[in-house]
Specification:
single chain, alpha/beta, TIM Barrel, eight-stranded parallel beta sheet, globular, binds 2-acetamido-2-deoxy-beta-D-glucopyranose
């Protein structure tokens, strides 16, 4: 009896550590309506419904919030994501700090005026060890938070200098078509003590899902997205294995 309890407890502790869960941050650079008026994001709703994990969709009207008036299709589609439980990040380009802080802040404002995403995605994030560049992202993060955005993600697309982890909530440390990254590569990123919730990866051009590799990657990446899409815009379709991916990410 006593021994049995001991082993039962041990087994559930081991199960618990295997059952680590990761979320996903998805570049959803897809117009929300198909040509014949259907829902172009349906596969995302289906995957989330099957396996509700911490899901963030990066919405991108036109390399940012767009300069034209509100697009009703985007308004409705973002509202539907939020109603389902999927959160959104407004896409903003920083051009490795070459864009002025004022221009980036104007995009952050415009996202709020037009579409009210949950958070902000800073694309083309610098990753060199330069004080002024670290300060630039710190300022932008502080501004976004002051405007009510709850989550910020920066995308250098590669390993970065640890102190950038003090600027935004999460950093994409791998965005590449060179195969699914090794667990060693992901785990060797120094996060300045922020841990796995601050790390995400975006491998693309992955023809079939290696569920074992994804399961291993979960130990150091709190957010994982994988797609078979490739080319100039590898984010303009969703992969056929999306629901399977959500299942592997679920704890
Ligand atoms: C990024 O900055 C470089 C250098 O200033 C400039 O040549 C390029 O046009 C910029 N790209 C975008 C997309 O703004
Ligand atoms: C991705 O896989 C789906 C089938 O799951 C296929 O229809 C699609 O053409 C593939 N996309 C690319 C870009 O290879």
């Amino acid at each position: 009896m006593f021994l049995w309890l001991f082993f039962a407890t041990l087994a559930s502790a081991l199960n618990y550590s295997n059952a680590i869960e990761s979320g996903t941050i998805i570049p959803l650079y897809i117009y929300p309506k198909t040509n014949n008026g259907g829902n172009a994001w349906q596969a995302l709703f289906d995957a989330y419904r099957a396996h509700p994990i911490n899901t963030w969709a990066i919405v991108n009207v036109n390399s940012g919030p767009g300069t034209r008036r509100k697009d009703a299709n985007y308004i409705n589609a973002i509202r539907d994501l939020h109603a389902a439980g999927i959160k959104t990040l407004g896409y903003v380009l920083t051009n490795y700090t070459q864009r002025s802080e004022a221009a980036v802040k104007a995009d952050v404002d415009r996202w709020k005026q037009l579409y009210q995403p949950t958070g902000i995605f800073f694309d083309e994030m610098a990753y060199d060890d330069v004080n002024s560049k670290v300060q630039y992202y710190q300022n932008l993060n502080n501004y976004a938070k002051s405007q009510g955005y709850t989550f910020t993600v920066g995308n250098p697309g590669t390993r970065t200098v640890p102190r950038y982890f003090n600027t935004v909530d999460n950093i994409v440390v791998f965005e590449s078509d060179t195969g699914f990254p090794s667990t060693d590569l992901i785990c060797s990123q120094d996060t300045n003590g922020k841990g796995r919730s601050s790390v995400s990866i975006l491998p693309y051009n992955i023809g079939s899902l290696n569920t074992g590799a994804v399961t291993e990657a979960k130990t150091c990446a709190g957010f994982i997205y994988v797609t078979n899409d490739s080319g100039i815009n590898p984010w303009d379709t969703l992969p056929g294995y999306l629901t399977q991916l959500f299942g592997v990410l679920k704890g």
